[in-house]
């Protein structure tokens, strides 16, 4: 069983995920906010009846919490800003090394540096990049992208010898449908199987293999047209017809059972018709 994170750990995770300039700006902002709350909740005056005493106790709690939080919260954002800046600098350094030094092979990077390299490549394309990894080299969506009103998801696979199979593409497609994003990308230093390519075709998923990474690393202004440059749009997978009653099907998310959280097609006539279909 995994250990539960503390409130400070959650705050620190948030501070690290934010752009370092945002976290840095929140240091004085949060300090001043809690300082104002502390001063406003001063409880020096004693109450004379039960109602006044209750108010004094509540204000005392607020005053005490604000006193400590005015140091704890800015401290978390200060650490987060430093870590975020360090990670951003590391990503930029890896990007410059790979792009300018032919001796630095993408396949030789660790999976963490590979994710940083891919994220920096998308930043040069004009995307805002948020790192979402944390489950290891092969777990979950690694990067979330945003540009304008469009949202995109990226799965990175640092597989040197093994081809990325269709199961990885299906997994990303399910998350895309659940989060209603515009498109998805799977990036690998290796290759993709034929089944993976066939499944991605027509599903707003671009596959970037070892050869395609070179194009991702070029300057965004000179990049060749691809789905990376597609106009922002909502991701709307085409709805199939119900094989039982022929009605249109709608995208649903399992709320219980062994597949909780996964997406599937359900008949629009539910509960009259309980037909379901797996995505893809």
How would you characterize this protein structure?
The protein is of the alpha/beta class and 280 residues long. The protein folds into three domains: 7-100; 106-229, Trna Endonuclease, Chain: A, domain 1 (3-Layer(aba) Sandwich); 238-280, no CATH class. 43% of the residues lie in helices and 14% in strands. It is built from seven helices and eight strands. The protein has helices at residues 7-17, 20-40, 50-100, 111-123, 166-179, 194-200, 213-216, and strands spanning 128-131, 143-147, 150-157, 183-188, 205-208, 249-253, 263-267, 276-278. The strands form two sheets. The chain has a five-stranded mixed beta sheet with strand order 1-2-3-4-5, with helices on both faces. Helix 2 (20-40) packs antiparallel against helix 3, helix 3 (50-100) packs across helix 4 and helix 5 packs parallel to helix 6 (194-200). The protein is flat, with a radius of gyration of 25 Å. The two termini are 33 Å apart. The model is unreliable at 221-225 and 227-235 (pLDDT under 50).
Instruction: Quickly count the domains.
Output: 3
Structural class comes to alpha/beta
Portion in helices? 40-55%
Low-confidence stretches: 221-225, 227-235
Number of helices: 7
Topology:
Blueprint: H1 7-17, H2 20-40, H3 50-100, H4 111-123, E1 128-131, E2 143-147, E3 150-157, H5 166-179, E4 183-188, H6 194-200, E5 205-208, H7 213-216, E6 249-253, E7 263-267, E8 276-278
Parallel strand pairs: 3-4, 4-5
Antiparallel strand pairs: 1-2, 2-3, 6-7, 7-8
Provide a concise account of the structure shown.
The chain has seven helices and eight strands, in the order ααααβββαβαβαβββ. 43% of the residues lie in helices and 14% in strands. It has three domains: 7-100; 106-229, Trna Endonuclease, Chain: A, domain 1 (3-Layer(aba) Sandwich), CATH 3.40.1350; 238-280, no CATH class.
